[in-house]
Amino acid sequence: MKNQFIVIEGIEGAGKTTAHEAVIAILHEHGINNLIVTREPGGTPLSEKLRILIKHGVDGETVTDKAELLMLYAARVQLLENVIKPALSRGDWVIGDRHDLSSLAYQVGGRGLDIKLVNTLRNMVLGDFRPDLTLYLDVKPEISLQRILTRSKLDRIEQESLCFFERVRNYYLSLVSGDSKIVIIDAQQSLYEVELSLRKILYNWLAGKHL
Length: 211
Ligand code: Z5A
What we know:
The structure is a single chain. The chain is α/β, with parallel strands linked by helices and 211 residues long. The protein has a single domain (5-206), classed as Rossmann fold, CATH 3.40.50.300. It is 54% helix and 12% strand. The longest helix has 26 residues, at 65-90. It is globular and about 50 Å long. The structure holds ligand Z5A. Ligand Z5A binds at residues 10, 12-18, 39-41, 72, 98, 102-103, 106-107, 147-148, 157-158, 187, 189-191, 194. Ligand Z5A binds next to helix 1, helix 4, helix 6 and helix 8.
């Protein structure tokens, strides 16, 4: 199999960071060591600055939903053109912590922005570029938010209501069904069981079996 772009998606506390480590370990077991990891928003010096603005805003000023969207795509285009595409061209694998599906789930599903507006930006930034495989970790917000409550400080988006995260999750679920390049994983299982699921999916996928 040639090098691929694999993305891990899900709401906060779904276990993306943990899954990331498992995916890297499984690829290493297959002798795939030429890989880079990315996160969105972020992953280039400019995108990391935008990440701080997206997550924390600026004191005394409301971040509008459209400004949030534009910052996310500005960060994404920097990462795509300066890191992801060059890595894929070199023959490296790319493992992404979030990508474009997040914008559909959060900005369209969660914020309620017009899909036509978001699609205009997607076409401009991504064209027909898509991940080869997306692993979507599905969990009910009431469970995942419990997992992140132990954090000392929640960021601007993490402070949203349970209803917001329910809309995000429902939008994710609507996108996942019917897309053969997105695989859903029950992230309400124990960490051990999630890793077993990832292992099974990736072994089959790497062997070229239908998922
Ligand atoms: N955002 C957006 O709105 N639009 C976009 O287009 C993009 C992003 C790209 C990025 O935040 C924010 O940007 C995010 C969406 C928005 N906003 N929010 N809120 P981030 O990168 O800082 O955070 P995150 O991506 O949401 O990741 P996270 O909060 O760190 O969650 P996670 O990586 O999925 O979870 P984790 O760190 O692996 O696990 C959290 C805890 O749960 C940890 O203690 C684990 O041990 C535990 N855990 C995980 N899985 C399990 C299971 N299965 N059982 C028990 N405990 C578990």
